[in-house]
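1st attempt posting a full record on here, be nice pls
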Amino acid sequence: MYERFLAGDPDYNGRFFTGVLTTGIYCLPSCRARKPKPQNVRFFPSCEAARSAGFRACRKCHPDDFERGADPVLETIETLVAEVRSAPETFPDVRSVVRRSGFGSTRLFELVRQHFQTTPADLLLRARLDSVKRSLLSTHATLARLAGDAGFESLSVLHEHFRSHTGLTPAAYRALRRAAGFTLALPDDYPGAHFLRSLGRDPHSLTERLSGNAYATVLASGGKLSPLTLRLEANSVRVETPAGTAPDAHALVVGLLGLQQHTEAFARLAGRLGLGRLVEGRTGLRLPQTPSVFEALAWSIIGQQIHFKFACLLRRRLVERIGTQAVGSLRAHPTPAEVASLEPRDLLPLQYSRQKAEYLIGAARLVAGGKLDLAALPAQSATRVERTLLGTRGLGPWSVNYLMMRSLEFPDCVPLGDTGVTSGLQALFSLEERPDIDATRRLMAVFSPYRSLATAHLWQLDRPEPPDKDLHPRPAAKPTGEPPSL
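the predicted structure (as tokens):
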């Protein structure tokens, strides 16, 4: 128990509580307060037992709230974030967010970082951008008015942030309402060759196809399936999609590209740590996002504790078995209802273990039956998402963190137990052996709050550089919302 306490292991919250003799306080095992010496620690099976021994509850980790299933601090932060996202115009600056919270600025920063893996400033910026995006697609108001209504200081400030987060100007984004294609601008340091290698990691995939610099997949939009094609060039991406689906296609492609991830900040952090080798040659590396949360959920179960190529084979066999919806030569990933209709015995001939089959079908049935609302997860706190997913049979720390960083774009996750991460840490820090889970936690802590990007770079560490596929510099493409010329 003391080892779990030292590791701050949240998996043991509620299994026991720790009392500290020198302070008279009892805590959860995951409490972030300074860890006492072992002779000053007592362990209790419940909060009541700790109180009976004369200890009082910690005001930092709130063990009583955890034990009864309540978390008032988390609920306060979630309410605040919901207010900022729904009405960013009512918060002229970060100071107003701090005042509304009732916490001090340092405490609010800590809580937002802990529960949403972001900062109040970034939270407010993204809420303003989302507000502008909604208005661009639903109104004819001028850009100057939209900028002012959302709380931007000027139209130029809106343009700067909008283009860096979306790859489009506001005017080009508005044109998506009628467009059958669009072109996104890429950052100067965007590692296109690495991006293509990620997209083509399963060359036999039935749901996506990479051919040279062109990538094709299936887009779900408005209850229908459509073809989606993107072509990567040196500093732009050309996207082709049927008219009426461009806004949904844009959201999918921005996720694939990872345009909203803080690559520059992570590269600076690695440099300050003296670990520039981790990002050398690929400072702009991103984590491509899986198109749907259920697809990421299915992969996180299928890919557990098996070789990557075998996981790809199992996924293809699942698509062959029930992926009946086709768009051209590609198939859509099976829906939760389609997977839920199976029995574990149906997957055994496909080389699924019985346990993996039960986990996959059981999770799909929870989703299809409305007991696991995947659509609600993107708006929730990282803390709430993690608790929800860990309560799902078949999902452990690796699966949950993988899903959170590859489908929900949380920036501070570590898929604990991942062999690519442990091998990368061993090489980066010149360790004699690969670190275990506790050592992985300690080593990855230095990369917080960008541990998801650290994971992406560790996966690439010491791998051969991918061929550039003719991604040579060329004049910057002007972002447009117009369909491609014939």
